[in-house]
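Ex. 9. Protein: Reverse transcriptase domain-containing protein.
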Amino acid sequence: MVSKFREVSPTDLPGMPPDRDIDFCIDLEPGTRPISIPPYRMGPTQLRGLKAQIQELLNKGFICPSASPWGALVLFVKKKNGSMRMCIDYRQLNKGVTIRNKYPLRRIDDLFDQLQGASVFFKIYLRSGYHKLKIRHEYVPKTAFRIRYGHYEFLVMLFGLTNAPTTFMSLMNGVFKPFMDLFVVVSIDDILVYSKS
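Predicted structure tokens for Reverse transcriptase domain-containing protein:
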């Protein structure tokens, strides 16, 4: 089914998402001052990977050069296939200065209750789902990160920010609201369509 409709489920996002009813926000505790951490030293392999990943993000329009006083650290995490994933370390931003979004995430046991009696299942994973939501303009500078090759900031929501899961869940609940509890279960970026026959 998925191979028949490849244009509906591309393997990669081509560029910036459309405007939506929800934008990502980073609300901070009053009096919070910008946090900026210097980049750490990287080896030649990491630098090659960093350069390639930064260029890809620039080409898609997901990041842009920044003059923000904020600056997070960039780390690399090894993926299962051996390649390296660039991760922005927002722990300082997340820890104690970001006001938490209280939007409820679904409980796993409630999700399983929905599936009682179902025998047919179809799972959809929203790859790069967080990149499908823009960051509201005034909050973009808070996503800045510093690397050897410059200072950049994100224009789309990304993994690693405190309120990203709840914001994305709010968007998904809005999209699937007419079908939830009937034949669709949504858990952040996983969508399960189910039927009793």
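Check your answer against this statement. The longest helix spans residues 44-60.
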